[in-house]
């Protein structure tokens, strides 16, 4: 098999051969479950050796493998990794109109089965570092539909990050089939309150008078928009928290399209049931935490969050992870503490610490050693202060922060390698901050400790 794959790879990337011959070689590689073959197909899709239409054919061929490795490659190209998209890789007209139907929504179920929701979500979210909502606001109008459908896919997988964008899309004007005076809001009918409630039921601000008029489109495009909004409401039944319940109630009564009103009405009971169950979970979680039943408490807080990812419940869940993670750490249950505490270390703005050079540890106390020790302590304290600030920002009281013991957090961060050790004084080159110690060549030539006075 290795020899066959090697020959096909040579044929695929032999620029002397005709395009049709090279395409056939890549399509053949797409059907072979072999590391070299998969790498070659990935290379053919990601590079500029083949035209975009050919690369789409390779992705379709990969689907026939029906393996997790093949779907990982497909998933890589299902999203745009940089904005604006590279026209060579994804020309806008191709991206919008000619993405193969064989790789449409229908393959999500199989990808989910082979890869799992967590892996799919991780790939999708990592490909949009600015976030779904930010991307939607910044891309050209011609690409907003693409971002919106991506958000729908994330929501179908349970990604709560999609909720805000889907709500925003549901508030936008429907496109018009015929030119008409004035805007037709997606959630307003004549004679009704023109402003839909924002998340949590707080009225939105009125229009500034400078909003663009709705687009004029074909009947088919309008039907597709309605279908999208029905699906968006269905997804919100999975990921919406109690803060969005008033908006869904408003849609059920006031959207101008009966299909959307019907879907919103049908999912209200589901959302209300989830919210009620999450409140029970929160009460039980608080009781378990007060009784130091930490395993039970974190399970119940997570349940409450999954049922009702509202800002209030999210804050309670994030706070509980830090409190319980600190208790796990105190009880030397480090493996269980890690997933609860890692996000805090990722969010730290100050991660650099410094150790006392080994040569100084046992040395007699001198003014120079005192100075270095003070610097080391200052570096440590800066990190600990940042840890305290992040704990406070997550809602922990001063008593809870003290009980969590930020010093223990600091030592754990060093142990896990989540904090960055600054080059020690002994390691710094002459003339640099933190340079050589007294008695070494270069001491006093620009290091942080001054040269002896002449």
UniProtKB/TrEMBL annotation:
Coiled-coil stretches noted in the UniProt entry, renumbered to this chain: none
Compositional bias ranges of the Pro residues kind: 430-439
Entries under InterPro entries matching the protein: ARM-like (IPR011989), ARM-type_fold (IPR016024)
Region described as Disordered: spans on this chain: 429-454
Protein origin, superkingdom: Bacteria
Name the UniProt record assigns to this protein: HEAT repeat protein
UniProt organism field: candidate division TA06 bacterium ADurb.Bin417
């Amino acid at each position: 098999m290795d020899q066959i794959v090697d020959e096909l790879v040579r044929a695929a990337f032999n620029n002397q051969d005709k395009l049709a011959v090279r395409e056939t070689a890549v399509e053949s590689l797409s059907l072979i479950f072999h590391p070299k073959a998969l790498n070659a197909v990935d290379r053919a899709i990601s590079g500029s050796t083949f035209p975009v239409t050919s690369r789409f054919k390779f992705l379709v061929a990969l689907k026939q493998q029906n393996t997790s490795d093949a779907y990982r490659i497909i998933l890589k190209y299902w999203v745009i990794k940089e904005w604006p998209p590279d026209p060579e890789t994804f020309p806008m007209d191709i991206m919008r109109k000619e993405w193969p139907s064989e790789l449409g929504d229908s393959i999500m179920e199989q990808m989910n089965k082979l890869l799992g929701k967590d892996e799919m979500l991780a790939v999708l979210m990592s490909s949009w570092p600015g976030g779904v909502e930010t991307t939607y606001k910044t891309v050209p109008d011609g690409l907003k539909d693409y971002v919106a459908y991506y958000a729908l896919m994330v929501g179908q997988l349970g990604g709560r990050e999609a909720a805000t964008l889907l709500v925003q899309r549901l508030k936008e004007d429907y496109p018009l089939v015929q030119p008409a005076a004035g805007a037709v809001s997606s959630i307003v009918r004549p004679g009704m309150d023109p402003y839909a409630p924002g998340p949590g039921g707080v009225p939105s601000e009125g229009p500034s008078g400078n909003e663009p008029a709705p687009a004029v489109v074909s009947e088919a495009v309008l039907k597709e928009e309605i279908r999208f909004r029905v699906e968006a409401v269905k997804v919100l039944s999975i990921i919406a928290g109690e803060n969005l319940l008033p908006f869904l109630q408003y849609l059920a009564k006031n959207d101008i399209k009966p299909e959307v009103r019907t879907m919103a009405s049908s999912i209200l009971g589901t959302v209300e049931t989830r919210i009620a169950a999450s409140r029970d979970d929160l009460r039980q979680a608080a009781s378990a935490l007060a009784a130091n039943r930490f395993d039970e408490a974190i399970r119940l807080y997570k349940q409450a969050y999954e049922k009702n990812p509202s800002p209030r419940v999210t804050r309670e869940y994030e706070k509980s992870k830090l409190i319980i993670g600190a208790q796990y750490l105190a009880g030397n249950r480090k493996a269980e503490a890690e997933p609860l505490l890692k996000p805090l270390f990722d969010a730290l703005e100050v991660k650099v610490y410094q150790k006392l050079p080994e040569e100084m540890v046992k040395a007699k106390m001198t003014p120079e050693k005192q100075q270095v020790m003070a610097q080391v302590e200052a570096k440590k304290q800066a990190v600990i202060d940042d840890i305290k600030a992040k704990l406070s920002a997550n809602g922990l009281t001063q008593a809870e922060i003290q009980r969590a013991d930020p010093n223990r957090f600091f030592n754990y961060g060093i142990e896990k390698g989540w904090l960055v050790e600054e080059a020690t004084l002994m390691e710094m080159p002459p003339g640099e901050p933190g340079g050589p110690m007294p008695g070494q060549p270069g001491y006093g030539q620009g290091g942080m400790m001054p040269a002896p006075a002449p």
